[in-house]
Amino acid sequence: MHQLNQTRAWANNICHTAVGFSPTRLPVVAGTIPRGLRGSLYRNGPARLERAGQPVAHWFDGDGAILGIHFSNQGATGVYRYVQTEGLEAEAKAGKFLFWGYGMIPGDSWIERFTKPVKNAANTSVIALPDRLLALWEGGAPHALTLDSLDTIGIDFLGGLKGRGYSAHPKRDQLTSEIFNFGVSPGQDATLHLYRSDLTGTIQQQAAISLSGIPLIHDYVLAGKYLVFCIPPVRLNGLPVLARLKSYSDALEWRPEIGTEILVIDRDSLSVVSRAQAEPWYQWHFANGCELVDGSLSIALVRFENFQTNQNLKEVASGQIQTPARGTLWHLRLDPRSAKILEMAEVVSRGCEFPTINYQEAGQPWRYTYLAVRHRDKAEDDQELFGAIARFDHQTGKFTETTQGIHLYPSEPIYAPDADCPDRGWILTVVYDGDRDTSEVWIYDPDHLEASPVCRLGLPEVIPLGFHGTWKPGSSGM
């Protein structure tokens, strides 16, 4: 057991309760906004981790807030708004936490435990549709917001959810404009619901697949003609949840003897192609997948050796990390006809997470994976958060990272294609400066990550570190 660590620079960010701000012109702190950067960056994450002095039980329980950065010929404008969920509004009125969450148990009485529902925190990711933004959360339907001012419109069932969940990791094929996603319904054995939507987000096709037990599935990968799930050996012990004795998070059990199940789905029919067991590991996130010339599938993911990562993320919310949990980037190759792994190897040994790509290459062959990584000077410090961003070249094996100070904490790197030159793009990240207690938007040239950012934009307030974002392209005439 680690001794309780001293307060880290990132803790002030995590413990900051966001206020939010209306559309505001952002000052250029250094450099110049690239001429071809036209469109909008959206990011989602928990922005309130306490209420009336009571902390949330897990980082995943914080109320979601969306940061929007709009780039046009006139410069950059920022807006930051909480998603106005029913749960947030009720708890704001009551002045205390009221509902179940991923790690939360509601109220002080057994009556409250049995009568209060789960709060949809809308705090994990976003997807930008032509006419609205969706704030995503694992266990329920998305919330729709306006694209410009981020006003909350309300729950969006996408024409077919019927109360089922819609994961925070939809995959959009840029070649067909199709959007794929999933949700999991609990039961004695859970059901995996698959969705295929058109470019407006409207569900066009659904399928249901039976699972073994109630697993935790956070992400999956689009790989050419297939959807691939690596279902880790984490299962929910439902009895203490039904008895209202444990939260969902605390009732999740690591069961390595089950192994990881590989489930391959045909993307056109949404039917099972193959399923097989593999060695145990856990992953939150995939980078990408594709079909190779020989018909096998190439997949990149951040792999953890066990489920200690859940406890680690619970401790992040307190500002004090005691449980080590290190994920690294792995590559696997599998046969889709049998779901058997043909090769699996670690390709980046540095602790990392939030793998992303040029989103235009989703499901297709890709060269670069972008990552949030531990700062090189704190690579072995399991009580630190990610202090740099990096690019891994799958073709050459080259690893390139940013070289800024040790008290700078970036968010997930997001690729933004250049509107004037489609063969190039930019990497955007929101950076918290622990020395100055400020947040900024940093823009990098991905071919020169080791250099200073080409532009830094000031933000009106500290943005609590969050999870996932997206880029919605504009035009060169914006």
CATH class (first level) name = Mainly Beta
**What's the number of structural domains?**
1
Structural class: mainly beta
CATH topology: Neuraminidase
Catalogue the unreliable spans: 1-5
CATH superfamily: TolB, C-terminal domain
State the CATH architecture.
6 Propeller
| Counted beta strands | 35
What percentage of the residues does DSSP assign to strands (E)?
35-45%
N-to-C span: 54 Å
Mean of all residue-level pLDDT scores: 95
Number of helices: 5
Biggest sheet: strands, sense, closure?
6 strands, antiparallel
| Principal-axis shape | globular
Assembly context of the chains: single chain
Can you give the helix content as a percent range? under 10%
Alpha-carbon Rg, integer:
21 Å
Can you give a write-up of this model?
This protein has five helices and 35 strands. The chain is mostly beta strands and 478 residues long. Strands 2, 30, 31, 32, 33 and 34 form a six-stranded antiparallel sheet that branches. It has a five-stranded antiparallel sheet with strand order 1-7-6-3-35, with no helix packed on it. The model is unreliable at 1-5 (pLDDT under 50).
Keywords:
six-stranded antiparallel beta sheet, five-stranded antiparallel beta sheet, Neuraminidase, mainly beta, 40% strand, disordered N terminus, 478 residues, globular
Q: How is the topology of this model organized?
A:
Layout: H1 11-14, E1 21-25, E2 28-31, E3 39-48, E4 50-51, E5 54-55, E6 63-72, E7 75-82, H2 86-94, H3 110-115, E8 125-128, E9 133-136, E10 143-145, E11 152-155, E12 171-172, E13 179-185, E14 191-197, E15 203-210, E16 221-223, E17 226-231, E18 234-236, H4 238-242, E19 252-254, E20 260-266, E21 272-278, E22 286-291, E23 297-303, H5 308-316, E24 328-335, E25 340-348, E26 352-356, E27 368-373, E28 388-393, E29 399-401, E30 408-410, E31 414-417, E32 425-433, E33 438-444, E34 455-458, E35 469-473
Antiparallel strand pairs: 1-7, 2-34, 3-6, 3-35, 4-5, 6-7, 8-9, 9-10, 10-11, 12-13, 13-14, 14-15, 16-17, 17-20, 18-19, 20-21, 22-23, 23-24, 24-25, 26-27, 27-28, 28-29, 30-32, 31-32, 32-33, 33-34
